[in-house]
């Protein structure tokens, strides 16, 4: 059997002809573009907690008030991160709704 004109698609567990691979790659690219803003939300929240916790740890090491400011910094980081997370999710949801409304108006 001669199979050099067939390409394995990592998206599924089957082999597809090369002319089909382009449409599969386009749908994957489109899905990743839509998901990218949501993928960053967890990283933003974790970074906020780590940065403010790190600042608290640094102040604790200078002022010799060990774990007090670290706990305060991590707590404030958690609250700020959660608020930013919720605002970002709402903004992304509003953008998605607006995109759907615009798409419906064009049809």
Brief synopsis:
The protein has 107 residues and is mainly alpha-helical.
Could you please describe the fold and organization of this structure?
- It is built from two helices and two strands; from the N terminus they run E-E-H-H.
- It has a domain at 36-106.
- The chain has 107 residues and is mainly α.
- Helix 1 runs antiparallel to helix 2 (68-106).
- Strands 1-2 form a two-stranded antiparallel ribbon.
- 79% of the residues lie in helices and 4% in strands.
Key structural traits:
single chain, 107 residues, mainly alpha, two-stranded antiparallel sheet, 2 helices, 2 strands, 79% helix, 4% strand, disordered N terminus
Which sequence of strands runs across the widest sheet?
A: 1-2
Q: What share of residues are in beta strands? A: under 5%
What sort of overall outline do the alpha carbons produce when their principal axes are compared?
elongated
Number of separate strands: 2
Helix content range: over 70%
Mean pLDDT: 80
Helix segment tally:
2
Element pattern in H and E: EEHH
